[in-house]
Amino acid sequence: MMWVFGWWGLNIVVFLVLLWLSWAYYDKRYRRKPNETMNPLLNGQFVKTNEVFIDPKDGFTYQVYYNPSTGEREYVRVDDK
């Protein structure tokens, strides 16, 4: 009978570890700390696109930059003052 509790306990621990890992590493793009000095145009690799959007999660306006060599996209917050 003791092995039943051990088996369920192991399953619960594995589930909690997987849950924590998925929360910790899922889509870090939205949880990056804003770097106010970061400007993709300074390094010359990113090209400004016409795409601008308002993020429904935080309500800020973002400008999209694109790196043609890697396909990477960067989202930079636009200061609405």
3D architecture notes:
It is a single chain. The protein is α+β, with helices and mostly antiparallel strands. It has 1 helix and 3 strands. The chain has a 3-stranded antiparallel sheet with strand order 1-2-3, with no helix packed on it. The longest helix has 24 residues, at 2-25. The radius of gyration is 21 Å and the shape is elongated. The protein starts with a helix and ends with a strand.
Assign the structural class, choosing from mainly alpha, mainly beta, alpha/beta, alpha+beta, or little secondary structure: alpha+beta
Q: What topology, given as strand order, has the largest sheet?
A: 1-2-3
What fraction, in percent, of the residue positions are helical? 25-40%
Residue fraction in strands: 15-25%
For the termini, the CA-CA separation is 66 Å
Give the number of helices: 1
- Strand tally is 3
Q: Overall pLDDT, averaged?
A: 78
Rg over CA atoms: 21 Å
Order of helices and strands: HEEE
Shape: elongated
Major beta sheet summary: 3 strands, antiparallel
Low-pLDDT windows of residues:
none
Secondary-structure map with pairings?
Elements: H1 2-25, E1 47-54, E2 61-66, E3 73-78
Q: Can you give keywords for this protein?
A:
single chain, 81 residues, alpha+beta, three-stranded antiparallel sheet, 1 helix, 3 strands, elongated
Summarize the structure.
The chain is built from one helix and three strands. The chain has 81 residues and is of the alpha+beta class.
